[in-house]
Design goal:
296 residues; alpha/beta; D-Maltodextrin-Binding Protein, domain 2; six-stranded mixed sheet; five-stranded mixed sheet; 11 helices; 11 strands
Length: 296
């Protein structure tokens, strides 16, 4: 397993040179620069006829105001494709704030990180519609990294820095696949992705639990070359496109029918700015195994 992780780490080093900076309504922004905003579209006025969207990117970074602008452009394009009068959306990086918004507003659709999808699914009648890639947003795979240790067993009982411990059940039941529980370590919660990397680089923690975006970021951080993966998870969807239980049936049918075309033609600029790549339809039971593990 560690060999596979190390090979992906090497691949990430090459890929880092090819990645373009992305904005962040559904992706974590790469440092320093962002793409030009898509062409201005008429603002969408909030109304009873507007179809509601919510975006939750846990561990999302960057400007929330910029992310919201890109989200506005994205949902305007989705409304056009589906023939809806209007659409509105709200961007979050906090699951707790998202739940309050969903309870109050009852949106029809959403773009969620995979852990958030599993955590919110039962309470809000969520069904998957599609999955999508999201540039360098993270959440597609997880790694335990270290400077001084060579297996995840070596890390157990020692300090583990991570910014992915907000939902420990997701890590224990789904991500780790029984390789470990967070309780096996002395967890040091971190707030920012780069802070997690620097904790190991600066010998403030022996190991760290990170995601694929942090593996790429490590190649750009001073001292990052000393970090190596000692364990890697299975791969997960970076983004789950979902339908909430509050979505009217005809609306949900239209959205599911058209989801794979939202980034085509005139929608390409909005998707590129949002960091949303290649939405692909999935069946309602696409994540049955992970749902069972999470709910168990």
């Amino acid at each position: 397993m560690a060999d596979r992780a190390i090979s992906r780490f090497a691949l990430g080093t090459v890929a880092a040179a090819l990645l373009v900076p992305l904005a962040v309504p559904v992706a974590v922004a790469a440092p320093d620069t962002a793409p030009a905003a898509p062409a201005e579209q008429p603002p969408v006025a909030a109304s009873d006829d507007a179809v509601g969207f919510v975006v939750l990117r846990e561990n999302g970074t960057g400007s929330a105001a910029q992310a919201q602008r890109y989200l506005d452009s994205l949902v305007t394009n989705i409304a056009r494709i589906n023939g809806w009068a209007a659409a509105t959306g709200k961007y979050f990086t906090s699951r707790k704030k998202t739940e309050k918004h969903v309870a109050a507003v009852k949106p029809s659709f959403g773009f969620l990180s995979f852990g958030a999808y599993l955590g919110l699914r039962k309470a809000h009648g969520i069904e998957p519609v599609a999955i999508a890639d999201a540039g360098a947003s993270g959440g597609a795979q997880y790694f335990v990294i270290s400077k001084n240790h060579v297996t995840v067993e070596d890390c157990k009982g020692k300090t583990l820095a991570t910014n992915h411990a907000a939902d420990p059940h997701f890590i224990d039941a789904v991500v780790s696949a029984d390789a470990f529980d967070l309780a096996d370590f002395e967890v040091q919660p971190m707030r920012r992705p780069v802070q997690t990397l620097k904790a190991v680089i600066n010998d403030e923690a022996e190991c760290a639990l990170v995601d694929d975006s942090q593996i790429v970021a490590a190649t750009k951080v001073d001292g990052g070359a000393a970090l190596r993966p000692v364990w890697s998870s299975s791969e997960f969807p970076a983004i789950v496109v979902v339908s909430f239980g509050s979505a009217p049936a005809e609306q949900a049918k239209s959205f599911r029918t058209n989801i794979e075309s939202i980034c085509n033609g005139d929608g390409r600029a909005a998707c590129d700015a949002a960091g949303l790549v290649s939405p692909r339809s999935v069946s309602a039971d696409a994540f049955a195994a992970q749902q069972t593990a999470y709910d168990g």
